[in-house]
Write a structure and sequence with these properties.
The protein is α/β, with parallel strands linked by helices. The chain has 3 domains: about 50 residues, N-terminal domain of TfIIb, CATH 2.20.25; about 190 residues, Vaccinia Virus protein VP39 (Rossmann fold), CATH 3.40.50.150; about 80 residues, no CATH class. The strands form 2 sheets. A 7-stranded mixed sheet has the order 7-6-5-8-9-11-10, sandwiched between helices. The chain is globular, with a radius of gyration of 20 Å. The N and C termini lie far apart (about 45 Å). The relative contact order is 0.12. The structure holds zinc ion. The site of zinc ion has 8 residues, from loops.
Length: about 350
């Protein structure tokens, strides 16, 4: 944690300013690795561990605690390195979430927040490939420690451990651009997470969210998701790791032996009509086995997963008085952006509504 970010932070209990108490001398990248932040009013102590200030060490819910442990295991395992091919995959993935609304140049000189940064994979890309002024990443899980390792060399990045619904930022309207991808649907109340993020959006700022869709996922919701709920979310990390690898191998075979020839025979557009998850599988076929394995694992471990309908999703934006646009991504999920004003005039984009035939 850099000392310069303390001016943005506050106590999550009483909202007062925090100050640096005992701490080590900053390292060569200017980060304080170990120390304490302390609230000037109520004297609550927030430890700095492994370069990251921790604002939400305890939750009162066992299900949320298991959720954050499972995600920490995932991100600590799958995002330990961001070089070479991993960086390429992360870049392509971030761009697919931003598409068709946001480009790196939209972040130029902006103060950015990623709500739920996991191991910092996408945050690393957003900070490296844009000229953003400051990029903050928050996450509830201890994957923040991996996120810190992955991004500490980037001068414009700060990682904070915190609860998305109780953020440690001193003032509202702090960020020009907030994005949260693949996170809100894992909260006990997804809409509350969204509302909390919107509160920190500057006048004219933009929020982008990506969530699992109810549309295009009925097969998964009816057959696979109950297994996650009842069984796999409760299994130990290693068991899920091997089980997901086994399942991925079966699906991988099915994709290459069944889906690929059928796509070649009928053409992709036609195949989309009768092959479930065709767009989704095509996307991962191009990204390789390990990335597909990670996403299968990612589907098995959450203790909480919601599938959000388009109506429900746009109501989040409406309830916050945001102008919005949505995009149906990969035939099974929703990307949406919202802005308090002038969204349509400043962003020449197209709305892609969900086609009921999918
Ligand atoms: Zn306080």
């Amino acid at each position: 944690m850099k000392e310069k970010i303390i001016k943005y932070l506050c106590c999550t209990k009483c909202g007062a300013d925090v100050e640096l108490a005992k701490h080590q001398v900053p390292d060569s990248t200017d980060h304080i690795i170990e120390g304490d932040l302390i609230c000037k009013e109520c004297k609550t102590t927030y430890p700095i561990i492994g370069g990251v200030p921790f604002f939400s060490l305890n939750t009162t819910s066992a299900i949320v605690d298991l959720n954050r442990k499972n995600f920490a295991d995932e991100w600590n395992y799958f995002t330990s390195s961001l070089s070479g091919k991993n960086e390429e995959l992360a870049k392509e993935e971030l761009e697919s979430y931003f598409h068709p609304f946001i480009e790196y140049k939209d972040l130029d000189n902006k103060v950015v927040l990623e709500g739920g940064c996991g191991g910092g994979r996408l945050l690393y890309i957003a900070a490296k490939y844009s000229n953003a002024k400051e990029v903050f990443g928050i996450d509830l899980s201890n994957a923040v420690l991996t996120a810190f390792k992955n991004t500490k060399h980037l001068s414009n990045v700060s990682i904070i451990q915190a609860d998305i619904t109780n953020l440690p930022f001193k003032k509202d309207k702090l960020f020009d651009f907030i994005y949260s991808v693949g996170v809100l649907h894992h909260l006990p109340k997804p809409e509350l997470g969204f509302n909390s993020l919107v509160k920190y959006l500057k006048e004219g700022g933009i929020i982008l969210a990506w969530v699992y869709g109810k549309e295009g996922n009925s097969l998964y919701i009816n057959f696979a998701d109950p297994i996650r709920q009842l069984i796999t979310s409760k299994l130990p990390f290693k068991v899920n790791l091997y089980l997901s690898c086994f399942l991925t191998a079966i699906l991988w075979g099915l994709i290459w032996v069944g889906y690929v020839p059928l796509n070649q025979l009928f053409g992709e557009d036609n195949a989309n009509k009768f092959l479930p998850f065709n767009k989704y599988f095509s996307y991962f076929r191009n990204r390789g086995f390990k990335d597909f394995w990670r996403t299968v694992f990612d589907k098995m471990v959450p203790t909480i997963s919601y599938y959000i309908s388009h109506d429900e999703f746009i109501n989040w934006f409406k309830a916050n008085n945001l102008e919005y646009k949505t995009y149906f991504r990969n035939g099974h999920s929703w990307t949406g952006i919202g802005q308090h004003q002038n969204l349509i005039s400043t962003h020449n984009t197209q709305t892609h509504e969900y086609a009921s035939s999918s």
